[in-house]
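FIELD: query
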Amino acid sequence: MSSEAIDADRFLALVAAAQDRDIGLTSIQAGLLVAAELGIASDSRTFARMLAIAHALVLRDLSGLAERGDMLEIVKRDPRTMRVHYKLAVL
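FIELD: result
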């Protein structure tokens, strides 16, 4: 098994664990949190590109997380590209 496959398996396991801890998280939301925690992605476009999913879907779930206010916060928005930079919320 390649290291990329192992990394993907680890990522998916962490996403599943995040969803187990909070059943209200969608898969994308849990993925955003894990990506931020691991330092893999800190903006919506990078996350969407890495997982080959529509940027609009990422933006929707990112907004939902930001509205909760307890897990993630928006750092910067680029109106031209629609890219949203985010980080884990400080508790």
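FIELD: remark
The CA atoms of residues 13 and 24 lie 17 Å apart.
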